[in-house]
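Quick illustration, no need to memorize.
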Amino acid sequence: MIFVSAATFATAQTGGKDAVRQGGAGRPVNASLRLNPIVAEFDLLAEGADEIFQLALNGKMERVPKKFEALKKSTSSFPSVTDDSGTLLLPRLNRTMADLELAVNAKDRLDTMRYANRLTLIAATVQVPYKPPTPTEVLVLDYNARELEIWSELRRSEKLSNIVIRMHLAWQTLMPKLLDHNASRELKRFSELMGRLEVAKVPEEYAKVSRQILVELAAIRQVFTRPAK
């Protein structure tokens, strides 16, 4: 892969003009993303990985290869992105894409779900220095809700409890950001769901709440990406 700088990538992607991209369901792209194509591209990566996850979750593995090839093509042109210490972040993306390809080719449904979900976390991590409009905590909660789906199916209770702890940490830091956006209704609904996770006893209960959490996270995303009045 030929790596280019983030600045070169931004210019190439926009042609010197604001980039206008339309996100999928639950992932609207607002004006701020037009000014930051790095964020837009990684948000689209997360969207594509989420689509693969949902297909595998619903047992539609025959539709996954086509989605994966589209995702693979889009990631082949990603730039070199480094964190503050200069550590290259994209090799992890490349490794996960390779693992996902093996899972897709083997028609391994659970591994397809795992690696597709891992891509969403990588996308969230890479976006952090570029200050995306959607707080990283939302993306982390999104990732962990899907992890609940995976480990509920495998009936790994110890995994489920650890995931809930991570979700509480992310939720605690997201709460004040919702208050800053006058999103008391979304805060109340999500707090109730986190309370249900606290009292969940069996994998089926975790899985049920995780699906409700994903719906609520789509609503919370709208809080941060809707145009200012």
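The two ends are 43 Å apart (CA to CA).
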